[in-house]
């Protein structure tokens, strides 16, 4: 930006005017009036130019401030790392072989950004594929769990059925044992009653025979 010329102050103009007035005292009035008119015309011509330069300078400053505030003018960082012509080979700080360095060194910042973005996209796609596989495995495990649950319920029902059958068979055996014991008790009671009846009948017969013999002796 060019530096504007120094502004002429009123002091200089007044000084020139004073000098002119003093020099005009010894001249012709007509020539003095002509020179004074030329001096006024010069002042009128210079003043708008100075005002125009001042307004132009203020406009540039305001536009610069506005562009800085709105971020319109790009400002590069110090060191020139983010310049378009920057390459990785300028400042390599990687542990690479010579072949890898030869490949990576020719890449610009834009190419590196694109490569990294593509790599991230590929890795995200791989993660999505792994996630889909895990979801399928989870779905298969859920289906197997449901099948095992149904089988387990069937096994539980079968075990419960077997347990009920075992209880029923045990109760049947107990009932049979009770019936057998009742029959045995009944048989023993019946036999005991028969023995008692036979003993009583024998005693009655013996008593009748004794009485009959006793009556025969008395006759």
Compile the SSE list and pairings.
Elements: H1 10-24, H2 29-70, H3 98-105, H4 109-218
In short:
With 219 residues, the protein is mainly alpha-helical. It contains four helices and no strands.
Please, could you describe this protein's structure?
The chain is mostly helical. The protein has a domain at 10-70. It has 4 helices and no strands. The chain has helices at residues 10-24, 29-70, 98-105, 109-218. α1 (10-24) runs antiparallel to α2. It starts with 9 loop residues before the first helix and ends with a helix.
List keywords for this structure.
single chain, mainly alpha, 80% helix, rod-shaped
Helix fraction bin: over 70%
Strand content: under 5%
> Helical region count?
4
Query: The biggest beta sheet, please?
Result: none
End-to-end distance: 186 Å
